[in-house]
Amino acid sequence: MDTGRKPGFRLALFATLLAFAVVLLGAYTRLTHAGLGCPDWPGCYGFLAVPSSAAQLAHAELHFPEAPVEAEKGWNEMIHRYFAGSLGLAILALALQALRRRTDAGQPRGLPLALLGVVVVQALFGMWTVTLKLWPQVVVAHLLGGMTTLALLFLLGLRLSGAVPALPAPAPGLRALAGAALALSVGQIALGGWVSSNYAAVACLDLPTCHGQWWPEGMDFANAFHLSQAIGPSYLGGMLDGPARTAIHLSHRLGALAVALTLMALAWRLWRHGLGRLAALLLAALLLQLGLGLGNVLWQLPLPLAVAHNGGAALLLLGLVLVNYRLRPRPAVGRLAGKASPLPTLRSGPLRRVG
What we know:
Layout: H1 9-31, H2 54-63, H3 71-100, H4 110-131, H5 136-161, H6 174-197, H7 221-224, H8 242-272, H9 276-298, H10 303-326, H11 333-337
Helix pairs in contact: 1-3, 1-5, 1-10, 3-4, 4-5, 5-6, 5-10, 6-8, 6-10, 8-9, 9-10
């Protein structure tokens, strides 16, 4: 059956899957402390791959004496860059296709071009992540850029699929609630990036309390969210003390609670509106993410669970993009099919004799 699928759908789907892989690889790179596995950008010690020969190692030692070659960390970083570079080429192809088909009816044009702009900025953040030595502000921005790229590619795929129609007029407030849930989730992702970039994931090792208290004494919120940290020192391993990291960790827990309550309210409203499948999808993604978060605390951040937690955040984000896309305003019929212009009305009046 013809679903109105538009050219570029398969490429957009491939790019979305590739972006999801890049998000996971970025998390793996960060969690294996390989963010500075290559001290330069875009290469690695001046090469396209991690130095291995005696001559390459000598070159690396000469030009980067402060950064000894660690092959495993270097490859973690370079594989992430290879995948990110491939994603950039796929997005470039989508943008060129959008320009080539700019006169086609219903073909998205602005979104592919916006994606191209986002991926250029994302490449800059990738460079600054290395050159500014994992400055937490840049690391969080780089994470948000990756999630933004993934979400926009998924949105482009939805638009090109032609198979996900807008719903009839939703219940009052449902669209606003879905938008609020999306905004809260993006904020929670940013907060999770702040946890990771400041190495605060294991600041609290007990549940549901933290250090045996519901509100640990001595938490340092001022330094925890001090956004004008100095640029220059290496932030590998983090620069904050225990009280500040505890404040960051607890803030992330409170954020998770706020997101969970909002998403449960949204799922309830979706179910009441007859959208049980969307509600079930949202709840499944939420339960998965909460379970992964709890597991990371209980088992002290095992690498597979920590990477999966980043993937869970991405899936939850995509679920919310889908919900908001389904709840978008329906275009008016006149804008879709065009309205026939009414014939001009002939006004009757007294006939004048000619001649």
